[in-house]
Each structure stands twice: as C-alpha cells, then as structure tokens.
Specification:
By secondary structure, the protein is of the alpha/beta class. The chain has helices spanning about 1-20, 60-75, 85-95, 105-115, 120-155, 175-190, 205-225, 240-250, 265-270, 310-315, 325-330, 340-355, 360, 375-415; strands at about 25, 40, 195-200, 230-235, 260, 275-280, 295-300, 320-325, 330-335, 370-375. The longest helix has about 40 residues, at about 375-415. The relative contact order is 0.05. It is found in: Mitochondrion. Keywords: Coiled coil, Methyltransferase, Mitochondrion, S-adenosyl-L-methionine, Transferase, Transit peptide, tRNA processing.
Length: about 425
C-alpha cells in the first residue's frame, strides 16, 4: 500500500505541470473512495457546481462565429455587401452575447443596416434601435396602466350613489372638440390668412427629415386649436419624396383628411411676390409688426449643423423680401444662433396674429436661449441705434451710386 501511494505521488509530480499547461488540474474526490483514484477536471470558470445541470458545450461556437462574422463584415467591400440573412444572423448573435440589439426589426431597417460601412456604425445603429424599442415598450406599458386606471375609475363612477343628481355643466367630449377644430380649419382654408411651409429641402438626412415632419405635425395641431387658424400651404411638395414618405409613416390614412393645401408649385407661382416675406434668422431686416396682408414663408428644415444662409440664399434667388424676429430687441440673448423650431415659430405667429403682442408671442422662445426680457427703455435705445446704422448704410450707398453715375456721365462726355 505504501508503495502504491509512492508511485501515485511521483506520477502526479510528473504529470501536473503538463496538465496545467492545457488548462487541466487534478483534485481528490469530495468523498475519498477505497481506491483513492484521482479525478481530472477541465478548468472552466463558467461551469456550474451542480452535477445535475446540463453543460452547453456549444457556447464557445457562438463567440467564435460572432468574431468571424465581425471579421467578414470588416473585410467586406462596398460591392460585396452582406445579405439580409447574414445581417439577421449577426443580430441574433449580438443579442445572445448580451449586446444591445432589438427584438424586432423591419425590412427597411435591415436594408439601412446593410448600408453602414463598418461594424462600429452597425453596432451603434442596433443600439439606437434597441433603445427606441425599449421606449416604445415602456410607452405601451404606461398606456396600458393608464387604461386600467380609467377602467377602475369608470367602474367607480358607475355606482349610482356617486353620480350627481343634477348637472349645471354639460360634459364636452374629445370627439366634439375634434369636430370643432376641424370646422375651424375648414373655414380657414376658405377665409384664413395663408401661411406657407417651403418643402424644397429634400437633401436633409433621415434623422433631420424625421424631426422636421414631427415638428410640422405639431404645427398643424397647434393651428387647428388656434382661435383664428392659418390656411396652411405645403409648397414645393414632391409626391413620393422624403417629406411625403415620412408623412405617410406618421399620419397613415389620416394624411388624406388633413385641412392643408398641398401642391408641387412654388409659392412664387401662387402668390404675388410683393406680398411674400420669407422668415429666416439670417435676414438683415427685422420684423417690426405682424402684417395680416402678407404671406409669410417658413423653411421646413431642421439642420443639426446649423447651415447658415440656406433659406436666405433661396429667398434672394427668387428676389423675395426677408425678415427675422426681433429677438435681440426684446431679449438678453445668450451666445448662439437665433434659430427656433418650426412649432415655436408657429406658436409665435399665431399669437401675433390673434393679439399683436410681441412680449406674449415671444414667451414661446425657450428660456435656455436667453437671460430674460430687456427693459422697455433699452428696447427703444437698441431700436434707434439699429435704425441709425441702417440710415448711415443707406446714405453711404446713395453717395456711392451718385458718384458712380457722375463718373459714367463724365466718361460718356469724354468719349464723345
């Protein structure tokens, strides 16, 4: 027996270094058996201590395949784009490995995912879709919870003891308000002042187009609920274009029922040019008062990079009058571009149309952009200084024109 133990110990000393090299080690059994045979166990940190659990020996294949899939994507050239089946396999692997990936993905999103050139950009887009899906699921749960609360409240109100015997005010339901808003919007299409959205900015990115259409939907909703709505025009609108496709996604069948005039024509072809005023933050002219006889144009674009002069150049090319809101006259403006969203512009114009009060209208400007309203005395001072500067510029231009005309006249006489 002593001889057998000696042989086993010497064999262990010889074998142990080689076995640790390949990730193996030797242990004694938890309960010492009669033969005292040593057991050999594979070193794996993820293995469960319970012997009854099934070990997934194919788990390593997922890791290897995911690495090969990434390598294939990185080596793929733009001409050899991976197909949709490979993309679906890659998404499934990413989800199994615990990475951010959506549970459901549309064919359009798959095609867009294929267009991304690198693995990093694909992973970022998958993370964006996953977060978007999580927000949608959270909204669904919230709506479901609110619906359950309404059902409980309705059951409580069904109790006859809680219902008041007499009511002084009649309940107005949302459907009745929708009928009223639609009637006012229909009247505005016949008698309202036109307000034009220039939809000739089809070169925006997909994210910018989505934000633009979302803001335009808010504009349409605010206009319907106004005291005196505008007659909205969507000019330079291309059928099956980026705007049209995004509107159909969001409105669905309700798109054909909107009280909006949609046309492919330019506003310069529909309205007299002397009545058109293009509102742009880059204009040198400041809007003094709201003119009910003018047709105001708003550029339907949202540019994340703030491309200066795009709408101003368009207005100059068509030889149209331009104007900007008097933000510096009324606000302690902070540093940054004086750019407002489309829905903010709509609310400002609606307030000016119905009240004519600049201070009330400019309440829709976000407070993060300014440090408060200026004192009335400072407002008049700034107004005088700007008028003085404009007068001096016009006077210098007049002198320059007179001097040039004299030179031309003198040159003509000299040639004769």
């Amino acid at each position: 027996m002593h001889l057998l133990n000696l042989i086993r110990r010497s064999a262990f000393k010889l074998i142990a270094p080689k076995m640790t090299k390949y990730g193996l080690f030797l242990t004694m059994p938890s309960k010492i058996s009669t033969c005292g045979t040593l057991r050999m166990i594979y070193l794996n940190k993820n293995i469960s201590k319970s012997a009854d659990e099934n070990i997934n020996l194919d788990e390593w294949k997922l890791v290897v395949l995911s690495g090969l899939e990434k390598e294939a994507f990185e080596k793929a050239s733009p001409e050899e784009e991976p197909n949709i089946a490979a993309i679906k396999e890659y998404i499934d692997m990413s989800r199994r490995l615990g990475k951010a990936a959506p549970e459901n993905i549309t064919e359009e999103q798959l095609k867009k995912l294929i267009e991304y050139p690198s693995v990093t950009s694909r992973n970022k887009y998958l993370a964006f879709l996953a977060s978007k899906e999580m927000r949608k699921n959270a909204d669904k749960l919230k709506k479901k919870r609110q619906q359950e609360e309404r059902e409980e409240l309705r059951k409580t109100m069904d109790n006859e003891e809680l219902i008041p015997k007499s009511r002084l005010l009649r309940a107005i339901w949302d459907s009745s308000m929708d009928v009223l808003y639609n009637w006012k919007a229909a009247q505005a299409m016949s008698f309202g002042q036109p307000l034009v959205f220039d939809m000739d900015y089809n070169d925006m990115s997909e994210r910018e187009m989505q934000n633009t259409v979302k803001q335009m939907m808010e504009c349409e909703g605010a206009n319907r609920k106004a005291v005196e709505p505008f007659h909205l025009y969507y000019c330079n609108f291309k059928e099956d274009g980026p705007y049209h496709n995004e509107f159909l996604k969001r409105y669905g069948d309700a798109w054909d029922n909107l009280f909006v005039t949609v046309t492919e024509k330019s506003y310069a072809e529909i309205f007299p040019r002397d009545q058109i005023v293009y509102l742009t933050a880059d204009s040198p002219n400041v809007m003094e008062t709201f003119d009910h006889n003018k047709i105001y144009i708003i550029g339907s674009l949202v540019d994340k990079t703030i491309k200066k002069g795009v709408s101003l150049a368009r207005a100059k090319r068509l030889k149209l009058a331009t104007a900007q809101l008097p933000l510096e006259r009324y606000f302690h403006w902070k540093t940054g571009a004086k750019v407002l969203t489309l829905d903010q512009m709509m609310n400002i114009l609606l307030t000016l149309k119905n009240t004519g009060n600049w201070k009330e209208a400019l309440e829709f400007v976000p407070k993060r952009k300014h440090e408060g309203f200026l004192d009335p005395s400072l407002q008049h001072y700034i107004h005088r200084q700007k008028n003085k500067k404009i007068y001096e510029q016009n006077f210098k231009k007049k002198l320059l024109v007179e001097e040039l005309s004299k030179k031309r006249l003198w040159n003509g006489l000299w040639e004769e």
